[in-house]
Amino acid sequence: MVVGAALGLALNWAGTREMVDADTVGKVAMVGKEAGDLFLRLLQMLVVPLIVSSLVTGVTGMGDLRTLGSIGGRAIAFYVTTSLLAIVTGIAMVNLIQPGAGADLALLEGDVSGAPLITEAPGGVGAVLWEQLKGLVPKNPLASASEGDMLPVIFFSLLMGVFVSMAEHHEGSKDASVVRRFFSGLFDVMMQMTLFVVKFAPIGVFGFTLYAAAGKGPGAFRVLGWYVVTVFVALVIHAAVTLPLILRLASGRSPLAYARALITALVTAFSTASSNGTLPLTLQNVEEAGVKPQVASFVLPLGATINMDGTALYEAVAVLFIAQVYGVDLSLVQQGIVAITALLASIGAAGIPHAGMVMMVVVLDAVGLPTSAVALILAVDRILDMCRTTVNVWSDSIAAAVVDAQE
């Protein structure tokens, strides 16, 4: 990561001063992106079979199905609590730093002149959440898997695990144990494939970091510098203070030791900006850190899809930043609406095409801000996406450790 960033920034610096041809810099950046994309595709190749096999194995391994309800309840309570804490942290920081106060709106709009726009909210929060709820049930589980739509895959896998477990205890069923052993064996094979793919992580991380540094450079932060600082500081507070405190108090684990055990997953999450893509490595690292496989295989796939602390925080900060840029003074009640909307919008966001943009539009619409203002922050979205994805994966991993300690 360090080598990729150093080389990329050096190339970007040389390119902006015409010491190196700009086309050459662009080509090097694209080579890095292609190398990173290939590594990410290898990871994404593992995700669907890993989620299905891990969830079915996790549910059938629990024995008493009441344990599933207990683990699920604890996990969801953790997700909602930490996402709310993240949003509150973000709102506090944006009110303290005031990154949008006095910002030149014309300069910001000029900086994103070619950006794609989403100009209207898709029916408000209620409509989006209903679509998410309806989208839980797949018309065809295989089609959902092929499209990378994870919530229906998770729902189907949980049902599969429940009914395999029930069939095993049914007097007339003789072959259900074969199904359980099949998924257990598939899970073992997928983890071995993960160990193989992780050997290519340095190449993927180098490629993505080179692309981000050479392609963007520091120029994108000129206008949006204070906004980036606000998001970054809020994410650091949540990741380095709030979540470690929860980990220490709820599980007794050392946050530093746990972070060291998860370093491969966290670095991969940062470079790829993909929670689902990082899931194979997160599962591997969390189990190596001592979390029971039954808990990890249930909590982590669910968390990678619905637990978005970093995303919820980012959306709250972005909306308040946009309000400040437009000179709109949001009341405490309106900021509360932003908090609740950002929380609800972040749950299951992965099931919606262009989820980040759609969800941002929903939150903007909830407080009457122009939805086209999404484009103002796109210039720095990639680096912030990398940061918030890392926080998402860190939060999922802590959820697994906390639920494991309490079961």
List the helices and strands and how they pair.
Elements: H1 2-16, H2 22-60, H3 66-97, H4 105-111, H5 124-135, H6 141-146, H7 150-168, H8 176-197, H9 201-215, H10 221-251, H11 255-261, H12 263-272, H13 275-288, H14 293-306, H15 309-325, H16 332-346, H17 355-366, H18 381-406
Helix pairs in contact: 1-2, 1-9, 2-7, 2-8, 2-9, 2-13, 2-14, 3-10, 3-14, 3-15, 3-16, 3-18, 7-8, 9-12, 10-15, 10-18, 12-13, 12-18, 13-14, 13-18, 14-18, 15-16, 15-17, 15-18, 16-17
Structural commentary:
- With 407 residues, this protein is mostly helical.
- Helices cover 77% and strands 0% of the residues.
- The protein contains 18 helices and no strands.
- α1 (2-16) packs antiparallel against α2, α2 (22-60) packs parallel to α7 and α2 runs antiparallel to α8 (176-197).
- It starts with a helix and ends with a helix.
Short description:
The chain has 18 helices and no strands. With 407 residues, the protein is mainly α.
Keywords for this structure?
407 residues, mainly alpha, Proton glutamate symport protein, 18 helices
CATH superfamily: Sodium:dicarboxylate symporter
CATH architectural group: Orthogonal Bundle
In CATH terms, what is the fold-level topology?
Proton glutamate symport protein
Please identify the structural class as seen in this structure: mainly alpha
Q: What radius of gyration results from the CA coordinates?
A: 22 Å
CATH C-level class: Mainly Alpha
**Contiguous uncertain segments of 5+ residues:** 112-120, 350-354
**How many helices?**
18
Q: What portion of the residues fall into strands of 2 or more residues? A: under 5%
Roughly how many Å apart are the termini? 37 Å
How many β-strand runs? 0
Q: Which percent range fits the helix content?
A: over 70%
Largest sheet: none
Shape descriptor: globular
Order of helices and strands: HHHHHHHHHHHHHHHHHH
Average pLDDT works out at 82
Tally of separate domains:
1
